[in-house]
UniProtKB/TrEMBL annotation:
Protein's recorded name: M23ase beta-sheet core domain-containing protein
CDD domains from the UniProt entry: M23_peptidase
Organism: Nesterenkonia halotolerans
InterPro entries: Cell_wall_metabolism_enzyme, Dup_hybrid_motif, M23ase_b-sheet_dom
Residue ranges occupied by any M23ase beta-sheet core domain in the UniProt entry: 175-238
Amino acid sequence: MRRAISRLKPLWLLPVLLGVTLGVLGVLGAVPDFVRSVPSMVLLVVIALGALLSGVHPKADEHEPHVMASPVRGRWAALNTPGQQLPSHGSRFLGQYAAVDILQPATAATPAKVRKAWRGSRPQEYPSFGAPVYAMAPGVVTRTWSRSRDHRARNTWQALLYMMTLEGALRTLGGQRAIIGNHVIVHHDDGTAAVYAHLRTGSVVVGVGQRVDAGDPLGEVGNTGNTSEPHLHVHLMDRPNPNAAAGLKMTWANIARPGEIEPSLAEIAKEPAENAVLSMPRNGEIFEA
């Protein structure tokens, strides 16, 4: 039942969009007369039902982490990771129960996480931007998108506020592309599927129906979709449709963990929760692939 409801997520989001639209029109005093003729209780019930159903997500049975190859090479740091807690991103939305975000360690030239400026930093200023992304397991590409633009970082106070309020809400209502930006989805031979998200504009080098092996290049790290700075978001699912998928735990076989913490992420480097996937890096932890 959960999966059937979740599969129709775009439909359930329509009443939520209606509620947001009516709220804005109400503030502007521009609600159409035909809408005013509908009993307010009916509108509230429809909006509330849509919000309730859009929050229903599939759950996978308890399982051991699936062993994958790392999607990157070199030195990286993890955040919003299942090595810290589950759900790693605070939600099961779009199958991202055990998703992980990774970025390359900061250099002296890397922009600050938050700075005083009118505009956010350009994505080209970050070391992760343009780094190659590789397939974690053999399978077939089922979906790609590479036309979203790389936007500036959300590293000013006003940009962060915008991202956490209006932008976040609009992207959620905008669907998968608005959230994950440029992406590749690979359906693996074992039945699992992986999402590689926030890729650089025009960088995707595979097409739908193409077969890939572990280690084959897919694209490059970018700053598209719901992102604050260039990084790779990757997660594993039990099927290739994120709207109908349950998130799965994974671990990377070809990484070393030297025990270092990325200084710019030190404030989120805490002891893992009891349900964490301990074979994955925790928040702020550097790993080498």
